[in-house]
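DM from R.C. (forwarded with permission)

"hey, sorry to bug you on a friday — could you get me a structure for this? deadline for the figure draft is monday and I only need the backbone to look sensible"
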Amino acid sequence: MRDSYSPPNGFEFQMSVSLNERGTKIEDLDTPALLLDLDLLEQNIKVMSDFFRGKSARMRPHIKTHKSPTIAHKQLAAGAEGIACQKLSEAEVMVEAGIGDVFITNEVVGWSKVLRLAHLAHHSNVTVLVDDPENLNQLSKAAELEGVKINAVVEVDVGMQRCGVQPGQPALDLAKHVARKPGLNFLGILGYEGHCVLIDDFEQKKKLCLEALSKNIDTKEFIEKSGLKVEKVCAGGTSTYAITGIQPGITEIHPGTYATMDLKFKNMGMPFDCAVTLLTSVISNPAPGKFTLDGGLKAISEEYGLPKPRLAKTKLVHLYEEHGLLELEDGGQSLKRGDKVELIPTHGCTTINLHNQFHCVRKGYLESVWTISARGMFS
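My reply, with the result:
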């Protein structure tokens, strides 16, 4: 963990202008609005940072959930080694915001993107995943053209069957290929146990997770027997940090969701609170005990189930594109048009990506408005 950190010169945290002595009340905001509770955000960052203090594994938070340079700088200030991105365009946003150590945990393929990656290496310490020799050839060519060094990490498929080479000899063969290429610096391996993260039962998750991690460790030892140094062995995310983060031999993990959190992971017993909600307004009362909200699928996602109202004895029963249908349960307090209802997302990653801004609140008042600068960055 870093001992100290200061944002780079020229970077300023985005702040709103207070409209009165305390600022704008939450209930006075136009809706739908994506809220970010700063007290909960800061507590979540602290909990994860405290967990890794004194551990051998380093923590490099993934920005694919929050997509915010401001939050990334807060994570760095709390001790993170650098940040991880999933797409090159996300990395470009983060580097523009002054972040000097960026790991793209994905393959960057195609000459135009590879050249963009090499350009980025002029301004930041850049690392990228690789799983193909031809891709390595392009990365090496671009690095030589630009006179830069690109760090390469071999992705190992430890069970997710999404990207990566097989453990053992295939990983060694590719690592040797990296080491021979000018302009590239072989750093190590990454094997993400993503096929384990949605398992609710902790013991079953731990069993499968450790089986996957053992493939990482065995591959690291196999590569080092050939004489290559493996500096990084990366794995892990929010759902598995407490397993992966203490596994001997794992040097770096990349949790993303923890900072803002969502119901899917919270319901697994994670020690983080849901800092992001969607503020909606009641716009209609079509039948007794039934209310229509002004936020739908274009403002909050539902692939992990319907969002949960932060209002006692109510439940969301359906989402249309621009409407949410809310029902009162027995004993629930009736609502009227204009009343505000917060919805807690089941999946933060796909909800946040629908919005341009976080309305940052603290103790019932708007404190800041932060641009979600990397939203929509898919390339």
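R.C.: lifesaver. The two ends are 30 Å apart (CA to CA).
me: no worries. The chain has ten helices and 17 strands.
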